[in-house]
Every structure is written in C-alpha cells, then in structure tokens.
Amino acid sequence: MAKLDGHVAAITGAAGGIGQAIATRFAAEGAAVALLDLDLDGATKIADDLAKTGARAVATRIDVTDEHSVEAAFKDVASSIGAVDILVNSAAIADGAPIAEMQTDMWDRMFAINLRGTFLCCRAALPGMQEKGWGRIVNMASEVAMRGHPGLSHYAASKAGVIAMTKCLALEVAGDNIRANVVAPGPTDTSMLSEIDEETLANLISELMPIGRLGKPEEIAAAALYLASDDADFCIGTTLNINGGTYRQ
Ligand SMILES: NC(=O)c1ccc[n+]([C@@H]2O[C@H](COP(=O)([O-])OP(=O)(O)OC[C@H]3O[C@@H](n4cnc5c(N)ncnc54)[C@H](O)[C@@H]3O)[C@@H](O)[C@H]2O)c1
To answer: Does 229 contact ligand 1 (Cβ within 6 A)?
Structure first.
C-alpha cells in the first residue's frame, strides 16, 4: 500500500518548483491531489500531466491573500475530489531589500502572502480534517528564519511567523488527530532563485552550503511526504531542516 492511499492533498503554490515536486510525489504515493495556485495555467498543465499517469489531480485558482478565494478553492476541491485531509502551504514570494530601503508595501505584501495566506488556508482546511478525525498540515518556512540574511528581513520574519503559528496550531489540534509541522528548506533549485545572478549564487553556495550544491525540489518533497504520512504521527509542531548544511540544529 502506498503511503497516502485514500487521502486528498491540497498543495498551494503547486505551480512552483517545490509545490510541483510535492504534488507529483504525493500523487505517486496514492493521494488525490489539488494543485492550488494564482497561476492557474501552470497548475493546470501539471495536473493534466499527473492525470495522464493515472493520478487523480485537479487544478484550482487560489489567491492565498484573499479569504473568499481561499474558501471558494477549498469548496471546489471538496466537491471535485473530496474534503482535504492533507494541506501543504507552499505558496510564497521572495524578494530583497535592506530595511533602510524597504518600502512599506513590500513588507506588507510579503506578510500577506507568506503568513496570512498560510493562516487562511490552514483555517479553511481544518473543518474537513476535524470531521474526518485525521489531518496533516505541512507549512513551508525557510532556514533563513533561523539563520538571518541581509536583505531578507521581511521574508525571514514572515517565515519565522509561519514556524510560530504552526507550533500554536499543532497544540490546538493535536487532540483532533491532526498534525501540523514545518519544513524549512535551504536554497533550492526553483524559479524562486531565478533572479539571483550566477556569480552571486555560486558565492552563496560556497559560503553557506557544505553540500556544495542547491537542493533539489524532490528532496524537499521527500520531507513533506514524511510529515504528511502516518509515519509522522509523533511529530507535533516540529520544524524539519532540509538545507544542505546552511543551518544546523
Ligand atoms: N526555492 C528556495 O530556495 C526556497 C528556500 C527556502 C524556502 N522555500 C519555500 O518553499 C516554498 C516553495 O518555494 P518555490 O521554490 O517552489 O517557489 P516558486 O516561486 O517556484 O513557487 C511559488 C508559487 O507560489 C505561487 N504564489 C505566489 N503568490 C501566490 C498567491 N497570492 N496565491 C497563490 N499562489 C501564489 C506562485 O504562483 C508560484 O507558483 C515557499 O514557501 C518558499 O518560501 C523555498
């Protein structure tokens, strides 16, 4: 039996590199998957490719900053493939500026997507999980939340918020047989890093990453799979660091 047979997984940011890898891995493990993203075309193409392999996969547009869009997306998923009992919050943005130069709307947008969006999606998924008496929530943070990095205060703070929020949520729902945990990836080879020039990226890898390379989205998906499965029943509000050695705890 595959690890996620009989489950319905919603992955936000599923048109992105890590979200796509998670949707693909979860589908291979038997889950019906809902690929939720602002980029509906991107999510639909991935869902169509997964469906060709025999997986149950649907794509739905979501803007995680908008509570109406979030509620509507979870209703759509429930009526097409069933109530979500596994949620992965992978939707996020990243950009950079030192605090002295950061515009207020840049700060607010980061929190609206990375933290508020994660909160709204967790809240929307909980009733179905509580009704079922089983649920898994995996929130994506970043090693930057623990390590810090110049120019990334808004991103790092939003991800530290995700970690803190998940600890509280995990305690609130542990008695409902729902597990909430975090994956904190290190620099991973996706479009999120595409605006960093090659020389800067090479320097970042040599200074920060003893492994000497970027992470692969599939390596992050393996961590998400662990936390989404019954194997992680004993994990409550933990953060799994998958980062090639940038940060060690
Ligand atoms: N790639 C890395 O180096 C890295 C490192 C640490 C943590 N992470 C985290 O991993 C997760 C996935 O990152 P990725 O590398 O796949 O990024 P990505 O940029 O490839 O994908 C992010 C996805 O989020 C979607 N998105 C953005 N705003 C949205 C909104 N308002 N509503 C719905 N969807 C929205 C985008 O359309 C995109 O498909 C993120 O939470 C990111 O912060 C990534």
So the answer is: no
Q: Is the full-model pTM beyond 0.70?
A: yes
Q: What Å distances lie between residue 209 and 155, 183, 201, 212, 243, CA to CA?
A: 20, 18, 11, 5, 8
Instruction: Name which of 105, 88, 84, 106 is nearest 97 in CA terms.
Output: 106
Measured in degrees and rounded to the nearest 5, phi and psi for residue 10 equal -105, 130
Is residue 2 situated within a structural domain?
A: no
* Structural tokens at position 94: 């990243």
Asked if residue 249 belongs to a domain, the reply is no
The whole-angstrom separation of Cα 149 and Cα 220 is: 21
The reply to whether 182 falls in a domain is yes
Q: Which domain holds residue 100?
A: 8-242
Q: What is the CATH number of the domain that holds 17?
A: 3.40.50.720
In a domain? residue 184: yes
Does residue 237's CB lie within 6 angstroms of at least one atom of ligand 1?
Answer: no
Residue nearest atom 38 in ligand 1 by C-alpha distance: 16
Mutate to test the pocket of ligand 1, among 11, 20, 38 (most ligand atoms within 8 A of CB): 38
Q: Is the CB–ligand 1 distance for residue 62 below 6 Å?
A: yes
Does the C-beta of 192 come closer than 6 Å to ligand 1? Answer: yes
User: What is the tally of structural domains in the chain?
Assistant: 1
Residues with catalytic annotation? 155
pLDDT tens track, the chain, 249 positions = 899 999 999 999 999 999 999 999 999 999 999 999 999 999 999 999 999 999 999 999 999 999 999 999 999 999 999 999 999 999 999 999 999 999 999 999 999 999 999 999 999 999 999 999 999 999 999 999 999 999 999 999 999 999 999 999 999 999 999 999 999 999 999 999 998 999 999 999 999 999 999 999 999 999 999 999 999 999 999 999 999 999 998
